[in-house]
Structures are given as structure tokens and as C-alpha cells.
């Protein structure tokens, strides 16, 4: 799936190979290998479990999560055993999010904007793209009545990266920052099903990092993330999707005590509320939508 990209802001044309794969099956086993894109979990826009693919935030392609995903080299195996589905994934190396590096870039959503604007040098410690940073993932899923239940596991590295401030021990003034991509494990569960005309989506994940005590300012704290979503048909072929997303940082007191003087602490509990209205008109050829968040 080749992709042609025109950046109107920079007046540049580029292309990318979105996906390239070989696939097949043998009895109850399906397989594919190549540059792949995965979809895990049920959360829109702020992934709780859907972290296998890095996201491209260096350009504004289209404000939908699947358009921002970057394909990765991987082997994907799915084995069917009755109602059960077991998926095993091997990823040979780490790939990080693509972030804009210009503080004047209007699409600098997730980049360390405050560091750039303050002129603080940022050292990026991205892991080597080799087998020493290979990743594995697994998902087990099955239907239960009108519901679909799933459990997830991922062993890899933080794709977003964690910027940590370095300060002068005497003055407390920032002298630099480090962006690191530490090892992490994800354990997650999701459930999706209908109750009458309502579609309910529930999801939660525990992120295990090397900083179990929370007192290492250069490593992201362990976290719990969760989503509760509601969707239903309204009228005129318009669907509404409302979701609440929470992120809870563990060992917050130890994290704040370990920060450099003058560094701004991230909140212990972060909330997001999103609303998406999407229509499907003219036999799905026209699909306008509105997305808002708070």
C-alpha cells in the first residue's frame, strides 16, 4: 500500500510504503509477515492498549488514529481454537514515534515544545534498531454472547519516549534534557458489547516500567490507564461516540520528590473526555465527522 503525502504547510511532496506483506494459512493458523499495521483495543485517539505501531506526529495527515500509524516489520500469527483466538506477534526492533522537531511547527502535538521554545538542548537516546531490542506481544480473544473479551501482553519499549530535565545542582536552572525509550511491559484487558441499542466499550492497562519505586526522574513511572466508552445511533445515519479516558501515575510522591528543582511535575491523575459524531452518507462515500475533546 504505497502512500503519497502532500504537506501543504511546508509545500512538500513525499511518499511512504504504508504496508507490504505476505500472508497465508495452514489449517487453524493464519500468518502474515512484512511491514504491518495492528489494531488493538477500543480507544480512539489516545491509545490505552493500541501501542504496537508508532504514530507519526511530524505531519498532519488526517485526524484519525489509523492514518497516523507507521507500519513496522513484524511476524503475525493467529491460531483459532473453537471460539478462542490466540495472536502472537514478533517485532525485530524498536521504532519510536515520529515527532516534529521545529517549535514553530503547527502540528507539534506531542513533541517537547516547552524545551525547544526555552532553548534547552535535548539529547535523544533512541535504542539501536537491531535484535537486542526485539519485542513480543500476545492477545487472546473470544466472544461471549453479544460481547467480545480480550486480554493483551506486550514486552518492548516506550515508543513515545520520556523527556527528563537535567538541572544545575547549585542554581536549579535547567541545563539540558534527555529523551529516553525505556523497557516496559503492558498487561491489558478489554470488553466490547451491546446493551439494547447502546454499544459499550471498556478497556484498562497496567504499564510496568523499570522505575517501580517512582524515585528515578529519568524513567517514566508505572501507570494505569483506562477507558469507558459509549456509542449509539442518533438519526440521519449519524453515530455518537463518547469516551472517558483516565491515566493514573503510580508512586506520585516519590516521583515529585526526585524531580530537579524547578522542574514541572506531571499530574498524578489525567482525565480526557472525547466526543465523536460521524455520519455515513451516499452509500458510505461521504463520511463527515466532528471530533472534540476536553
Give the structure's gist in a few sentences.
The protein is mainly beta.
Q: What is the overall pLDDT average?
A: 84
Question: What structural class should be given to the helix and strand makeup?
Answer: mainly beta
What is the general shape?
A: globular
Distance between the termini: 35 Å
- Specify Rg, calculated over alpha carbons: 21 Å
Order of helix and strand elements from N to C terminus: EEEEEHEEEHEEEEEEEEEHEE
Tell me the number of helical segments per DSSP (H or I, 4 or more residues long).
3
The strand line-up of the biggest sheet is 3-4-6-7-10-11-14-15-16-17-18-19
Give the % helix.
under 10%
Q: Would you identify the regions where 5 or more consecutive residues have pLDDT less than 50?
A: none
Q: Report the oligomer.
A: single chain
Describe the sheet with the most strands. Answer: 12 strands, antiparallel
Query: Strand fraction band?
Result: over 45%
Number of strands: 19
List keywords for this structure.
19 strands; 294 residues; twelve-stranded antiparallel sheet; single chain; 3 helices
Structural overview:
The protein is mainly beta. The protein has three helices and 19 strands. The strands form four sheets. It has a twelve-stranded antiparallel sheet, with no helix packed on it. A three-stranded mixed sheet has the order 9-13-12, with no helix packed on it. Strand 14 and strand 15 form a beta hairpin. The model has no long low-confidence stretch (mean pLDDT 84).
Amino acid at each position: 500500500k504505497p502512500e503519497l503525502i502532500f504537506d501543504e504547510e511546508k509545500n512538500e511532496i513525499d511518499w511512504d510504503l504504508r504496508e507490504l506483506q505476505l500472508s497465508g494459512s495452514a489449517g487453524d493458523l493464519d500468518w502474515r509477515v512484512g511491514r504491518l499495521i495492528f489494531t488493538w483495543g477500543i480507544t480512539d485517539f489516545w491509545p490505552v492498549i493500541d501501542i504496537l505501531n508508532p504514530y507519526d506526529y511530524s505531519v498532519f495527515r488526517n485526524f484519525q488514529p489509523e492514518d497516523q500509524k507507521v507500519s513496522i516489520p513484524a511476524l503475525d500469527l493467529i491460531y483459532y481454537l473453537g471460539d478462542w483466538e490466540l495472536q502472537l506477534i514478533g517485532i525485530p526492533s524498536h521504532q519510536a514515534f515520529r515527532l516534529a522537531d521545529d517549535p514553530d511547527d503547527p502540528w507539534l502535538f506531542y513533541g517537547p515544545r516547552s524545551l525547544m521554545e526555552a532553548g534547552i538542548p535535548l539529547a535523544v537516546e533512541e535504542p539501536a534498531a537491531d535484535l537486542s531490542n526485539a519485542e513480543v506481544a500476545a492477545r487472546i480473544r473470544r466472544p461471549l454472547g453479544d460481547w467480545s473479551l480480550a486480554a493483551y501482553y506486550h514486552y518492548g519499549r516506550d515508543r513515545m519516549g520520556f523527556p527528563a530535565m537535567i538541572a544545575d545542582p547549585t542554581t536549579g536552572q535547567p541545563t539540558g534534557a534527555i529523551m529516553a525509550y525505556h523497557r516496559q511491559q503492558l498487561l491489558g484487558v478489554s470488553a466490547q458489547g451491546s446493551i439494547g441499542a447502546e454499544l459499550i466499550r471498556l478497556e484498562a492497562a497496567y504499564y510496568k516500567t523499570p522505575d517501580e519505586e517512582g524515585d528515578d526522574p529519568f524513567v517514566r513511572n508505572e501507570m494505569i490507564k483506562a477507558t469507558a466508552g459509549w456509542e449509539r445511533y442518533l438519526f440521519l445515519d449519524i453515530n455518537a461516540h463518547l469516551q472517558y479516558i483516565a491515566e493514573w501515575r503510580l508512586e506520585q510522591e516519590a516521583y515529585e520528590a526526585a524531580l530537579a528543582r524547578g522542574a514541572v511535575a506531571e499530574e498524578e491523575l489525567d482525565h480526557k473526555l472525547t466526543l465523536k459524531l460521524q455520519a455515513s452518507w451516499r452509500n458510505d462515500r461521504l463520511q463527515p465527522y466532528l471530533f472534540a475533546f476536553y
